[in-house]
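Researcher: Here's a chain I'd like modeled. Treat it as a single chain, no partners, no ligands.
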Amino acid sequence: VDIGANRGQFSLAARQWAPQSKIISFEPLAAPAALFRKIFAGDDSIKLYEAAIGPMAIDGVMHISARDDSSSLLPISSLQDEIFPGTSEVGTVNVRVAPLGSFINESDIAAPAMLKLDVQGFELDALRGCESLLHKFDWIYCECSFVELYSGQTLADDIIQWLFERGFNIKGIYNPSYDRAGQAIQADLLFRKPC
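Model: Modeled as a single isolated chain. Structure tokens:
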């Protein structure tokens, strides 16, 4: 399950290392979702929902970044644009937000299952939106930040703790980024549920 699919970058990678997998993706922005559909046209084992995942069904306000893969349901901070130039907010758009269980059920998730999240600061809210189905996942791969790039975002320590309380242990740290002073900014964290 690929939450924050953008144009399908992660789904393309997953298709390479797990060619027989079923991929269920979520992307709330129309333009990247349209490109996703074009890339995966004819692939019946991939399903895309044009929506975001969150703890309740609402019309959310997406803060659009000049680089759409940096857009977020949280306001974009000045630090985000300072560290990643060209990612400032250029507008907003209303998007559908709902829990994962509004779209799929337990039978749609086959082991071994991975939940991937790349949602630009909205990670904990998205995880809460997955909580009723979390027990179906063996792995969680989640981009987390160590500094507040989006106003009000939950940082990596709290996400690690939240997942630990639900039986997931951190197993790997990938693709770290640092600022000019060498401070860790964000990384992709891999979690595993004990067998």
